[in-house]
Amino acid sequence: MGGINIDSIAPSVTINGVASGAIYTLGSVPAATCAETDNLSGLDASGCVTSLTGGTANGVGTYTFTATATATDRAGNTTVKTVTYRAVYRFDGFLQPINDTAHQTGVATSVFKSGSTVPAKLQLKRADGSVVQATSQPEWLTPQRGSATAASVDETLYSESATT
């Protein structure tokens, strides 16, 4: 009677490039790849089958990279690995007239005359610093009143022109 080989162990799949739960800046997301091994009956000739889903048309959002490996044995063993990560814009802070307290040393607050309109200017960028152009209009949020301050009002005019 001939020997019977039974392969009940699924192949091994490793996802390279992206890490599960990682946050990458738009333009610096590493390429996701996969590698597979099977030490018993061998792998299917099609190799590691992958798919990438999620995100938005502008390249940011939550993505899911799925890799599937199929062994060539008659048992049809398969392994599926999934990694989820996020791609976000680079944000370097607000532009004047709002003081960028996170990036400017010695500046703690921005103070404006009560009731005045304050333009909030910002830029969303790629990892290399290039500005990303908007694909849709911004969403208006209802302003919220901040806490009272005893700081003096600086009514200096700013002469910077509006930017996109």
What does this structure look like?
Helix content is 0%, strand content 31%. With 164 residues, it is mainly beta. The protein has two domains: 12-88, Immunoglobulin-like, CATH 2.60.40; 89-133, no CATH class. The strands form three sheets. The chain has a four-stranded mixed sheet with strand order 2-6-5-4, with no helix packed on it. Strands 1-3 form a two-stranded antiparallel sheet. The chain is rod-shaped, with a radius of gyration of 26 Å. The model has no long low-confidence stretch (mean pLDDT 82).
Question: Brief overview, please?
Answer:
With 164 residues, this protein is mainly β.
Quote the average pLDDT.
82
- Contiguous low-pLDDT stretches (5 residues minimum) are none
Question: Structural class, please?
Answer: mainly beta
Rg over CA atoms, rounded to whole Å, is: 26 Å
Using the coordinates shown, work out and report the CATH topology of the largest domain: Immunoglobulin-like
Distance, first to last CA: 79 Å
Question: What gross morphology would you assign?
Answer: rod-shaped
How are strands sequenced across the largest beta sheet? 2-6-5-4
* Count of helical regions: 0
Q: Tell me the total number of β-strands.
A: 8
* Strand coverage percent: 25-35%
Assigned CATH class of the largest domain: Mainly Beta
Instruction: Give the biggest beta sheet.
Output: 4 strands, mixed
| SSE order | EEEEEEEE
CATH architecture of the largest domain: Sandwich
Number of domains: 2
Helix content: under 10%
